[in-house]
Amino acid sequence: MSSATDDRTTAASTASLGHFLFAEEHEQLRRTVRQFVAREVDPHADEWEEAGRVPKSLYLRGGALGFFSHCVSEEYGGIGGDCRMAIVLAEEFALARTSGLGMAFGAHSEIAMPHLTRFGTDALKRRWLPDLVAGRKVAALGITEPGAGSNVSAMATVARRTADGWSLTGSKIFITNATQADLFFIAAKTDPGAGHRGISMFLVPRESPGFTIEEMKGKLGRRASDTGLLTFDNLPLTADALLGQENRGFYQIMQCFENERLTIAAGCIGAAVAALERTVRYTQERPFGIGHLSDMQVTKQRLAKSYMELEAARQLVYTTAWRVIHGMPSLKEVAMAKAFASEAAFRIIDDCLQLHGGYGYFSEYLIERAYRDIRLDRIGGGATEVMYDIIAKQLRI
Ligand SMILES: Cc1cc2nc3c(=O)[nH]c(=O)nc-3n(C[C@H](O)[C@H](O)[C@H](O)COP(=O)(O)OP(=O)(O)OC[C@H]3O[C@@H](n4cnc5c(N)ncnc54)[C@H](O)[C@@H]3O)c2cc1C
Q1: Average per-residue pLDDT in the chain?
Q2: pLDDT tens for each residue of 249-265
Q3: Within 6 Å (CB) of ligand 1, which residues are found?
Q4: Which of 174, 228, 223 is nearest to 369 (CA)?
Q5: Which atom number of ligand 1 is nearest to the Cα of residue 142?
Q6: Quick one: which of 194, 216, 350, 356 has the most CB atoms within 10 Å?
Q7: Does pTM surpass 0.90?
Q8: Domains parsed from the chain with CATH numbers
Q9: pLDDT of 281 above 60
Q10: Among the listed residues 169, 170, 106, the one whose alpha carbon sits nearest the alpha carbon of residue 140
């Protein structure tokens, strides 16, 4: 019977190899990630889950392997590319024995960095991007606040103009990479009376005076990903810390959500693939009656239904990626992909745990971790209900 220890082989045989969306360079990236995960991540996964973070040196390795260089042009240290690279990375990271990898790298390069590549001035890009691409510096994005999660425009953090630039006061909660990041992308009100039309984005270096970072412990899942509470107490920022246009931050955030949500959806595909492959193996090895659990028709049907849902989610994510690559408006489709993939992955992994019976309830089996981990995707990056709101609004219903 497979256990968490002997379950180390990558659960990847039915991943997306050969899909028409991907070219040879993407398949090459897949192979590189698989090797990296097998050699440098999986052997340490349990230790990092226990530690509550991945080591900072892992970002350097990620940088050296080119995992942060897509969507950054060559002049700033990247290689250029489109969201296919991000999809491959998210899928493959999700096949690792710890979701801390995908969270750490995803928050850095898919959630935070796009704000700089899309909206930074040439000077800001030259100053930060080469280090971020190389993994010498780590990035985090701070939007959520204790009083403003789904409703971004309710944020209370304020940046007030000073003679030299800005003064930042407020707090951010649930921030991924908080304890390791060198550079924070922070949303704040610059016109507090103007609702979502009064938000701007700022670059905040970790060593800024008036900046406190507290680690948040006790998460249900994603335990090898560090999460923190940020507090800014009259934190001084120079004028060039403003990222993009003053009072246009909300729209910038919405544009960057496209990449974040598509990447989350792709990660859900990887997580479901991993859970299903492990579960198929488990049912084939679990004695039941005169045969194995896998011999029962109900098991076959349950797994068949899950693979069907996985395939539907995958096609929705890939078709949406194709739209994004071709510059088509995709707000509705991205919301659909994120909501559908996260809800499908949750159902699939729940079914996989059911097939493990009582063993699935124990940490010796990776399905226990997968079940805890996948719960975040229906909440983070915009809850499913928020995605439904976007879809309804776009459909004008
Ligand atoms: C582990 C973790 C890591 C995170 N990392 C980051 C990060 O790096 N940076 C960052 O800025 N944020 C981060 N977040 C925050 C995350 O994006 C928010 O938790 C999420 O947006 C939901 O906000 P909230 O928690 O305030 O829930 P609320 O906004 O209070 O919503 C609670 C629930 O209400 C329901 N709901 C909300 N809106 C609607 C609606 N319109 N219609 C119907 N129902 C609705 C949903 O079920 C939702 O789950 C992280 C969160 C977690 C748990």
Answers
A1: 95
A2: 999 999 999 999 999 99
A3: 107, 140-144, 149-150, 174-176, 219, 222, 227, 376, 379-383, 385-386, 389
A4: 223
A5: 11
A6: 356
A7: yes
A8: 24-138 (1.10.540.10), 140-247 (2.40.110.10), 250-395 (1.20.140.10)
A9: yes
A10: 106
